[in-house]
From TrEMBL:
Domain spans labelled YdbS-like PH: 85-157, 248-299, 350-418
Organism (species): Nocardiopsis alba
Transmembrane feature ranges: 34-53, 59-78, 185-206, 212-234
Compositional bias segments (type: Pro residues): 1-17
Keyword Mitochondrion: no
The entry's keywords: Membrane, Transmembrane, Transmembrane helix
Stored InterPro entries: UCP026631 (IPR014529), YdbS-like_PH (IPR005182)
Name this protein carries in UniProt: PH domain-containing protein
Segments for region (Disordered): 1-21, 427-468
Pfam family, one: bPH_2
Length: 468
């Protein structure tokens, strides 16, 4: 092939393949879902009903198994054919059901997170599951099973583009690396925890007692200990192996998993609150865990997806908080220490409310003032007699429960007034979480923000910061 002559333009890019555009058309799960469902139903029938029918002879078992296979196929095949989905402008339309037909049309402006999940078996066959988390509780999540991996990735990109207010054909947003969790650090941090170390020691003691005294009764305590270690040690180890976090205009992207690979994308503004957990022994290593409350997750899904960084250096954890809440600096918020009972501290500035509590396990909870749901100043009979009060900052259900506990009543009132004032200032019409990519354009259409001279003047001493 001859090179182009000077002045001659480069050849045009090749046209997109017919299957690359997911913004139009109707799609289905991979056809493999049909034989998988048939095989699963047949195995359940043989395992449960087969032993009962074997008294009549294996011919009956074989005959009934064949009938179950054809019956399952007669249901699975039309169910797969009628189970379709597709994008219609900025809505995701999902059809399903065979006898009872259903149709769901979901506005993507309610999108909270998009996950591409690939369990071990699906990795072998090159398929994936697309999970779309929406605001609205447990029943609002959309799960599209057994999609070809390329289709799942392209659909994730198109869904995020629609949610951001961009055309669905927009390319995947670029990303920049943020943090990769080394496996030795993950292994050491999971081991270097007081409950795990005590369980290991107790397990060794019970094993020694069984060998020395040949007492079989100790095995009754070995089983629950072993199951507990499998859940709280092996579970996180397999889950967060090869953990990688990156930042993009679409939000925070997390990739992790040993046997079940997962790519989680959290769009900007979906994180409602964050807490940084530092267990006693982790402080010696200088590492912490970052957990978040996300409005789209509820119930078990909240606990399953709340970790933003399972193990990371403490400074990296605070850097991520600043990335989640642009314009803030969580580490420099001035804190007021409470020395009445257990040591704790709380502080507020124009961006964040920060509380620190815990003697053995230090927990730092951070809530942006524009994401606060309600503010409560509470005091029981004994607290009123002592002149104390507690300020609670409520957020959507999740791991974060920020509060300024057991404060002087006047100090608690100042905290409440400062939080209310900062929250009122922060809640502007452009602070919503919908269509984050075009929010700057909408602000430009409304006109420039008022200058400092146009704002209402405040006398010194009236600002919430000076009140504290």
């Amino acid at each position: 092939m001859l090179p182009p002559r000077p002045g001659q333009g480069a050849p045009p890019p090749p046209p997109p393949r017919p299957g690359d555009d997911v913004t139009t058309g109707v799609f289905r799960s991979h056809w493999m879902i049909v034989p998988v469902r048939v095989i699963a139903v047949t195995l359940v029938f043989v395992a449960l009903v087969g032993p009962i029918l074997s008294t009549f002879g294996y011919a009956w078992v074989l005959l009934m198994a064949v009938a179950v296979v054809f019956g399952a196929l007669a249901y699975a095949l039309p169910s797969w054919w009628y189970g379709t989905f597709g994008l219609r402008e900025d809505h995701l339309v999902v059809h399903g059901g065979l006898f009872l037909r259903s149709s769901r049309e979901i506005p993507l402006s309610r999108l909270q997170a998009v996950d591409v999940v690939r369990p071990l078996l699906t990795q072998v066959f090159g398929v994936a599951e697309l999970r779309i988390e929406l605001a609205g509780g447990d029943g609002s999540a959309i799960r599209l099973h057994y999609l070809p991996r390329e289709l799942a990735e392209r659909m994730r990109t198109a869904v995020l583009a629609h949610a951001a207010g961009l055309p669905g054909r927009s390319p995947d947003a670029p990303e920049r690396p943020f943090y990769r969790l080394p496996f030795p650090l993950l292994l050491g941090a999971l081991t270097f925890r007081v409950p795990i170390l005590l369980a290991f020691i107790l397990l060794l003691m019970l094993g020694t007692a069984f060998v020395v005294f040949l007492e079989a009764g100790v095995l009754g305590a070995v089983v629950p200990l072993a199951l507990g270690l499998l859940r709280y040690y092996w579970g996180p180890l397999a889950r967060y192996t090869d953990f990688y976090a990156s930042l993009s205009p679409d939000g925070l992207r997390l990739r992790y998993g040993m046997f079940q690979r997962r790519m989680q994308t959290i769009p900007p503004g979906r994180v409602q609150a964050v807490r940084i957990v530092e267990p006693l022994l982790w402080r010696a290593l200088g590492v912490a865990r970052v957990e978040a409350t996300m409005a789209g997750y509820a119930g078990a899904r909240q606990g399953d997806s709340s970790d933003l960084l399972p193990v990371a250096p403490r400074n990296r954890a605070f850097t991520l908080v600043n990335e989640m809440f642009p314009g803030s600096e969580a580490a420099v918020v001035p804190l007021v220490v409470n020395r009445e009972r257990l040591p704790s501290a709380a502080g507020v500035d124009e961006h964040l409310f920060v509380s620190v509590r815990g003697l053995f396990c230090r927990v730092t909870e951070i809530v942006p003032v524009e994401r606060m749901q309600t503010l409560r100043l509470s005091a029981g009979p004994l607290a009123r007699w002592r002149g104390r009060a507690t300020v609670d900052v409520d957020t959507p259900p999740g791991p974060v429960a920020a509060r300024a506990a057991d404060r002087d009543a006047e100090e608690g009132r100042r905290f409440l007034n400062a939080l209310a004032e900062y929250g009122r200032r922060a809640r502007v019409p452009s602070a919503g979480t919908e269509r984050w990519a075009t929010r700057a354009t909408m602000r430009a259409e409304r006109g420039p923000a008022p200058s400092e001279d146009e704002k209402t003047e405040e006398t010194p001493g009236d600002t919430p910061g000076e009140a504290l």
